[in-house]
Design goal:
alpha+beta, elongated, 6 helices, Alpha-Beta Plaits, single chain
Length: 224
């Protein structure tokens, strides 16, 4: 039985990396008493997957993971069991059943929505500069790849939506599709270039993952 869980990663865990979150959830599943499925082979592991790895330094409101169970359980019961086993800063908000025909959560992700808040004395000026940057037809930044290393790319087509939130914050939606993936760090790198700054301090929160449907982008936690 495939189940999914929508969870939040709290502010206190923003500097905890994806592998640490993975290990924390694995330990919680073992403690929970749930009859989870394991892979076959020499080194079996829990059949657990995440929709998208979250960068170090970011909090999150609606992350998604899936796990396979040996026996049926209600979404409400799974939510309660997980919250009892997980630390307080990882809270499961809801659970549900994934039909076997549903692709992996990772395959469903097309974009990510972010809330960004500038920190420091110049945060209002940074928001003005960010808004001006978004008026440009081309926004150059650096993309890192395993094969090609670092290369300059135009990320403007990968920034699918932008909304300034005065005095010091903005929301944006970034593509996660192959060939056009964009990260917040790439947007901030572009802002550093045009502003002449060596460092820009921000608070990052991934508010939702999105999937592409016939009518456009939809929040993944609502699509399932």
């Amino acid at each position: 039985m495939r189940m999914y869980a929508v969870f939040e990663k709290g502010e206190r865990l923003r500097h905890i990396g994806h592998l640490d979150i993975l290990r924390t959830v694995q330990r919680a599943l073992r403690r929970s008493g749930l009859q989870v499925k394991y892979s076959q082979g020499f080194n079996p592991h829990i059949l657990l997957g995440f929709a998208s790895a979250l960068s170090v330094g970011a909090a999150a409101e609606n992350e998604l993971m899936e796990v396979e169970l040996e026996e049926a359980i209600s979404p409400e019961a799974l939510s309660g069991i997980l919250n009892s086993a997980l630390p307080a800063d990882i809270r499961v908000k809801k659970c549900g059943v994934l039909p076997d025909s549903t692709p992996s959560l990772m395959a469903l992700v097309s974009a990510a929505a972010w809330h960004v808040r500038f920190l420091g004395d110049e945060r209002e000026e940074l928001l003005r500069q960010m808004t001006a940057l978004m008026d440009q037809k081309e926004i150059m930044s650096v993309r890192k790849t395993k094969k090609a290393g670092e290369k300059d790319v135009d990320i403007r087509p990968s920034i699918l939506a932008f909304e300034p939130l005065p005095p010091d914050s903005f929301d944006m939606t970034l593509s996660q599709e192959e060939g056009s993936t964009c990260k917040p760090s790439m947007v901030l790198e572009a802002l550093k270039r045009v502003s002449g700054r060596d460092e820009i301090r921000v608070s990052l929160t991934r508010t939702s993952l999105l999937t592409r449907t016939g009518s456009g982008l939809e929040r993944l936690e609502e699509y399932l």
